[in-house]
Amino acid sequence: MRLLKNILLFQKKIVFTSYIISIPIAILFKNINVVGVSVMFVMLMLHFFIYELKNQDEYFYYYNLGITKLQLWFSTLFIGFINVIIFTFL
Amino acid sequence: MRSLFVDSITKSYNNRVILSDIFLSCEIGEIKGLIGRNGCGKSTLLKIIFGVEKAENKFVRVHGKLINNTLDCKGLINYLPQKHFLPNGIKISKIINLFLEKRYREKLLSNQFVKPLLNRTSQELSGGERRIVEILLLIHSNSKFILLDEPFNGVSPILKEYIAECILEVSKNKGVIITDHDYENVLKIADTITFLKDGYLREIKERSELIELGYFVKVD
Lengths: 90, 220
Prior knowledge:
The structure holds two protein chains of two kinds. Chain A has helices at about 1-30, 35-55, 60-65, 70-90. Chain A is an all-alpha fold. Chain A has one domain. Chain A is elongated. By secondary structure, chain B is an alpha/beta fold. Helices cover about 30% and strands about 30% of the residues of chain B. In chain B, the strands form two sheets. A six-stranded mixed sheet of chain B has the order 6-7-8-3-9-10, with helices on both faces. In chain B, strands 2-1-4-5 form a four-stranded antiparallel sheet, covered by helices on one side. In chain B, helix 4 (about 125-140) packs parallel to helix 5 (about 155-170) and helix 5 runs parallel beside helix 6. The interface of A and B includes residues 9, 63 and 71 of A.
């Protein structure tokens, strides 16, 4: 449970910002289904810019909990994919 | 079986050998000091042990378990990097609650140096305040071994003394490998000292060896 909470902590910054960027895009395209794909794409981009380029050292917090970089990337993909499914069938 | 065992670590950068067939071991209850000049490979060695840096050859074992990556280190090895690692924008109290198991939290939440910082985010802390929170987080965790890379860096003399006391206290139940350029503090708390130079580790047995290496000035 503690590990899951820490993965959510990692994802918090990414997910919120992805929605802030993706909702105006959906309004622009006048299509709510776009949100899912947009969120997934923006999440991957933000993950890369925030954690791989800007705050690379934050990874050590997660390493010390036994969470690997691969698992964190997988969690981003997973949450993004869930968003795609939800917004495709909405 | 209560030991961290490191053997055959070899690492080179651009054909320059940084670490050559390194052997190191640390028992629970022991503080091992690692000293050496800038760029001699101390941090690289700790990162290889922790599994975040690749090596041409490595063998790391804790309690009979082979360590290949950070996932294998869970509950066994924690690593304090040189740079700050606390997540940005999160309150210290939340970080403590998320990082530590319930039974270890209370001690840290009531710590005299941490208590005033609980409602501030990591970004609002000074470098020294961040460092003390990071060190205390790691030493209060349930891991059996801690690798400390420059724990005294950017910390005031009072906090340095406190950190040294904490490391001594925690070493009763953990094994500690520590490296820092503030070698006087390292020498003060370490049970054994190893010196890294030209890719080779050498155990320091006498203070006179440190004088030869230039760490102390000989007074006649």
